[in-house]
Write a sequence for this structure.
């Protein structure tokens, strides 16, 4: 019995190997691999380039050395952001504002002044956020915040939300229960924040969606080919008349698809992570995402490390879902043409519909969100599954695994029933 | 091995491609003969479970082949009319992959592939890519894949189409050799392919089997006679309008016609022995001799 199971497993594994070989022996498959490699290099480059250090001369630099110096500068401010720290930031800021470099009309002189501010630039950003209206951002707000009022920093975050929730713009969007939910979330966030240099994580979460989306788009081509190539090559007659053609061979096609998605996705994401963190560092893993510009408003209480995990696993789930859908379409239409457009449609249609606020709740649950979990964590869509208020993330993280799992048997049955006309 | 077709029918919309065929086959070689569009491929696809019949069933040793599912397919070897393969695979890899699809254990598959490559004369080309093979070599790779599981039922759809005469004869011999101890069904519209190797011939027309039996029986069933006579070239069209001409050979003096006719078509005509080709033409051919491809 055991012997047979091992034997059958070996059979399927062997067929999976051939399926993968079929895909990558074709020129199209090779081009896809080349494109993935090129894209990975490009996104790594852009990510690393996005973290800049301005030296004493006012010159912007990026790379390993620059990141290290930025880290050193920022980590002088590492620790809990208490009132004392905030006052110190204000004083330092005022001091630099008074300098002749800052006052100069020459932008190079201004850059020299900035060089001295960048150590506390993240904290400065937070103060700007806390002291401007919820939906606005004023880069110079910090210059007019007084030492007396800066102590209300954390209360202002909550008050800003409260003001917005009851403003003309938002008062009808959320029910009382939802407003309560959001305010409670804000109040529950542990203060004072712990701050540290975390630019590696921030840069990762900014550029990871680009990498993940492009991976999915490119992978759509080889993956759709798995189910369409038999028909395209007219090899289907032999395939389906073979003993295992309508059972294990179909399983191994599905297996090959999932293997390709899994293998390539993780190679891309892990190589990308390795490059980004090797150059920009992994410091700040334990900081709350609210300590950065992107996460300030989020009502999800997670650290950068947790956000990273959310991004990479959400991305994997989204890739599995979208590409399995593409496989399903190529199996049922017997052509790869429609199937390769699946990821394109799923990724680009939502961004066209973005401006229609009536759709925003639906858009928040679409699978493209899985490929950009960092951004999704900052959205304010609320839902009521089972009477409880919740954000979109828990919903999509349960919905899509279920949909993915449900698609597999359907895919199997659709392909297995193929007739050769 | 016994295959029975029971009122087997396939409609494509209004069109009936296979029309209530009921037949039985045992071991031996069956030649399915019919003009283009007769329904040969459709019939074979149903025999390979690639196409569901609209009506009727197929039994293998008394069991419905669709219920037998993979058990039936494990008995099956099929060379389709349009033989598609994976162009970038080497011949060896291609065969190993099909062996895997057929559920043959890797160790056995390796041995079997080696044997078959020798048998079909592709041993030297084992490492060549499939796309680089000549038409004849591709067919031989096709036959090899069909034979991988040592099938009890071997179905070959126009296995000799597009081959040069030499290759065709070699192929015919190969098929005869492979035909022992199994049921072979091969389709063709080239009469000479089946004349020698088929034990039983089925003549198919518009989805129905119109004549069946040994070559001799079918030849004897023709109610008209075959004549050969020499005519002037300008007379050829006159004869062609009046009679079915199964062959024509021209030289300086005139044309030698092979005419199928009840009575003597002209004074100097001599009776000739009827061949299967004549019969094919008699049943399926049209007057005005358009069947020149039945070499
Ligand atoms: N999928 C289909 N849809 C509609 N009609 C079809 C389909 N497949 C076959 N036919 C029709 O059924 C008839 C029989 O086709 P089939 O391919 O079985 O003939 P055949 O005897 O194999 O011909 P050939 O010698 O040209 O291979 C033809 O008229 C063809 O047009
Ligand atoms: Mg045909």
């Amino acid at each position: 019995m055991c012997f047979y199971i091992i034997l059958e497993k070996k059979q399927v594994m062997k067929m999976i190997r051939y399926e993968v070989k079929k895909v990558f022996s074709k020129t199209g498959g090779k081009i896809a691999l080349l494109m993935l490699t090129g894209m990975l290099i490009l996104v790594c480059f852009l990510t690393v380039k996005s973290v800049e250090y301005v030296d004493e001369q006012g010159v912007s630099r990026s790379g390993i050395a620059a990141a290290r110096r930025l880290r050193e500068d920022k980590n002088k401010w590492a620790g809990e952001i208490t009132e004392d720290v905030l006052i110190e930031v204000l004083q330092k800021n005022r001091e630099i504002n008074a300098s002749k470099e800052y006052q100069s009309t020459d932008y190079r002189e201004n850059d020299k002044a900035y060089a001295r501010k960048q150590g506390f630039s993240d904290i400065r950003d937070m103060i700007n956020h806390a002291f401007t209206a919820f939906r606005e951002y004023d880069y110079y707000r910090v210059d007019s915040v007084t030492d007396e009022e800066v102590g209300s920093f954390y209360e202002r975050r909550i008050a800003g939300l409260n003001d917005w929730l009851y403003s003309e713009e938002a008062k009808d969007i959320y029910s009382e229960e939802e407003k309560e939910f959001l305010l409670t979330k804000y109040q529950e966030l542990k203060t004072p924040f712990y701050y540290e240099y975390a630019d590696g994580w921030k840069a990762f979460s900014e550029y990871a969606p680009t990498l993940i989306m492009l991976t999915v788009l490119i992978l759509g081509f080889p993956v759709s080919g798995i189910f369409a190539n038999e028909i395209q090559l007219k090899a289907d007659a032999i395939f389906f008349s073979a003993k295992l053609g309508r059972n294990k061979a179909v399983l191994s096609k599905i297996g090959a698809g999932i293997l390709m998605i899994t293998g390539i996705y993780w190679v891309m994401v892990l190589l990308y992570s390795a490059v980004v963190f090797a150059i920009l560092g992994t410091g700040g893993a334990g900081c709350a995402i609210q300590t950065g510009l992107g996460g300030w408003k989020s009502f999800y209480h997670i650290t950068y490390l947790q956000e990273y995990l959310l991004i990479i696993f959400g991305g994997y789930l989204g890739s599995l879902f979208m590409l399995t859908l593409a496989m399903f379409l190529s199996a049922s239409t017997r052509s790869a043409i429609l199937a390769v457009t699946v990821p394109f449609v799923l990724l680009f249609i939502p961004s066209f519909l973005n401006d229609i606020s009536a759709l925003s709740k639906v858009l928040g649950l679409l699978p493209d969100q899985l490929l950009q979990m960092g951004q999704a964590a900052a959205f304010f869509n609320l839902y009521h599954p089972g009477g409880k208020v919740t954000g979109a993330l828990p919903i999509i993280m349960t919905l899509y695994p279920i949909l993915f799992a449900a698609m597999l048997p359907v895919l199997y049955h659709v392909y297995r029933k193929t007739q050769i006309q | 091995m016994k295959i029975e077709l029971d009122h087997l029918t396939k409609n494509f919309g209004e069109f009936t491609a296979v029309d209530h065929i009921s037949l039985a086959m045992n071991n031996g070689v069956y030649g399915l003969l019919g003009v283009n569009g007769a329904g040969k491929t459709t019939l074979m696809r149903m025999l390979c479970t690639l196409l569901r019949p609209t009506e009727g069933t197929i039994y293998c040793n008394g069991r419905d082949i669709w219920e037998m599912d993979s058990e039936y397919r494990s008995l099956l070897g099929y060379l389709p009319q349009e033989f598609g393969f994976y162009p970038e695979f080497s011949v060896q890899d291609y065969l190993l992959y099909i062996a895997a699809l057929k559920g043959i254990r890797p160790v056995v598959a390796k041995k079997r592939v080696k044997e078959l490559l020798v048998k079909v004369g592709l041993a030297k080309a084992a490492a060549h890519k499939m796309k680089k093979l000549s038409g004849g070599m591709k067919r031989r790779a096709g036959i090899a894949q069909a034979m991988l599981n040592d099938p009890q039922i071997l179905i070959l759809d126009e296995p000799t189409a597009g081959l040069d005469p030499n290759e065709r004869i070699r192929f015919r011999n190969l098929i005869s050799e492979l035909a022992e101890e199994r049921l072979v069904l091969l389709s063709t519209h080239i009469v000479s392919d089946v004349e020698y190797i088929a034990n039983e011939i089925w003549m198919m027309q518009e989805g129905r089997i119109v004549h069946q039996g040994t070559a001799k029986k079918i030849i004897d069933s023709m109610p008209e006679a075959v004549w050969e006579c020499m005519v002037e070239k300008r007379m050829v069209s006159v004869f062609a309008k009046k009679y079915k001409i199964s062959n024509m050979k021209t030289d300086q003096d005139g044309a030698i016609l092979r005419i199928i006719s009840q009575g003597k078509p002209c004074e100097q005509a001599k009776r000739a022995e009827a061949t299967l080709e004549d019969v094919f033409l008699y049943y399926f051919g049209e007057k005005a001799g358009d069947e020149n491809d039945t070499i």
Summary: Residues 2 and 61 of chain B are 5 Å apart (CA to CA). The first helix of chain B runs from residue 40 to 47.
